[in-house]
Amino acid sequence: MSYSPLVQQLMEAFRCLPGVGPKSAQRMTFSLLQHDRQGARSLAAALQQAAEAVGECRLCRNLTEAEVCPLCQSERRDGQVLCIVENPSDVQALEEATDFRGRYFVLKGRLSPLDGVGPAELGLDVLEQRLADGEVTELILAISPTVEGEATAQYVGEMARQAGVGVSRIAHGVPLGGDLEYVDAGTLSHAFAGRTSVG
Amino acid sequence: MSYSPLVQQLMEAFRCLPGVGPKSAQRMTFSLLQHDRQGARSLAAALQQAAEAVGECRLCRNLTEAEVCPLCQSERRDGQVLCIVENPSDVQALEEATDFRGRYFVLKGRLSPLDGVGPAELGLDVLEQRLADGEVTELILAISPTVEGEATAQYVGEMARQAGVGVSRIAHGVPLGGDLEYVDAGTLSHAFAGRTSVG
Ligand SMILES: [Zn+2]
Ligand SMILES: [Zn+2]
């Protein structure tokens, strides 16, 4: 072992990042320490600040350090249409691929009773309250067509129907069993435009 | 733009890492903020500590927070044989691939007069002093066979000859124009064992 303790510690700390193995961690460590100390300090500060301050939006559960996220605050978004997604990254994917001007609700997962993920873990009580408030008139389900995603979509669709809210589901082109965030923008745009009513 | 400022800032900060594009930066950000706050805090602390404290070893120029690195301190290493490498990562690659028991000297670059990299930038004054001290009796040049690497090897080889120190160069199997750190361990081990005298 030829590394000093702080170099070794940094190399191991990089392993918490997705897709980073021993070789990448080593390359990142040497790159920052040899050529970019300022980058290392900026990344440290950004990590520290985000880890302390970022929580979830009271209205949509997306990641934000504010009580209400920029998208839920924006008056330029249509509060009558709510798009239901699994992950924060899905919000970004849809924003880039479509001209959707409504708002979002982020489940942060899918129903999976065996893993202890029920309606409460997905914030469906919060969603139910929002539907009861009466502003939302249409739900768009942008949930991945996996087995657990299907069950989640059915559950949310049933909630919408009971609240008298129209509900549709994006379709066409999202591959069965695929994760939404890996679909290319063109396919996703097509699927969004071609959504079919399930209400 | 659907991200809150701190989320956006973290995403941009990840771009200082080699090989990390917008998609990877997004995946890293969501992964840490959704599933691994503790990992984010540990990485922040490791970056901060390393950026502040890690300097270079007074003897070999390798990265270390101590005045003298673990390898130069170790009494189990042979101080008579010095292996010259370009990068800290080359030290680790040779440690893993060979049974070399001497010590190292890290140039942190190659001679490149047009880029302002001369002998002083590579610490060759420090190396010259070490050769004059008399403990070192053999140099092994493990420098990549690129154009600038060749010039660097010739320069260091000449220094060794003037100091009356034997000098050899690793050979066989390191592809011409290739960077040492991307060579597989078997090839590197073979090249190290088959080094040829150039003194
Ligand atoms: Zn929100
Ligand atoms: Zn050293």
From TrEMBL, chains A, B:
<dbReference type="InterPro" id="IPR015967">
    <property type="entry name" value="Rcmb_RecR_Znf"/>
</dbReference>
<dbReference type="Pfam" id="PF13662">
    <property type="entry name" value="Toprim_4"/>
</dbReference>
<keyword id="KW-0227">DNA damage</keyword>
<keyword id="KW-0479">Metal-binding</keyword>
<dbReference type="InterPro" id="IPR006171">
    <property type="entry name" value="TOPRIM_dom"/>
</dbReference>
<keyword id="KW-0863">Zinc-finger</keyword>
<comment type="similarity">
    <text>Belongs to the RecR family.</text>
</comment>
<dbReference type="InterPro" id="IPR034137">
    <property type="entry name" value="TOPRIM_RecR"/>
</dbReference>
<dbReference type="Pfam" id="PF21175">
    <property type="entry name" value="RecR_C"/>
</dbReference>
<protein>
    <recommendedName>
        <fullName>Recombination protein RecR</fullName>
    </recommendedName>
</protein>
<keyword id="KW-0862">Zinc</keyword>
<comment type="function">
    <text>May play a role in DNA repair. It seems to be involved in an RecBC-independent recombinational process of DNA repair. It may act with RecF and RecO.</text>
</comment>
<dbReference type="Pfam" id="PF02132">
    <property type="entry name" value="RecR_ZnF"/>
</dbReference>
<dbReference type="Pfam" id="PF21176">
    <property type="entry name" value="RecR_HhH"/>
</dbReference>
<keyword id="KW-0234">DNA repair</keyword>
<dbReference type="InterPro" id="IPR000093">
    <property type="entry name" value="DNA_Rcmb_RecR"/>
</dbReference>
<feature type="domain" description="Toprim">
    <location>
        <begin position="80"/>
        <end position="175"/>
    </location>
</feature>
<keyword id="KW-0233">DNA recombination</keyword>
<feature type="zinc finger region" description="C4-type">
    <location>
        <begin position="57"/>
        <end position="72"/>
    </location>
</feature>
<dbReference type="InterPro" id="IPR023627">
    <property type="entry name" value="Rcmb_RecR"/>
</dbReference>
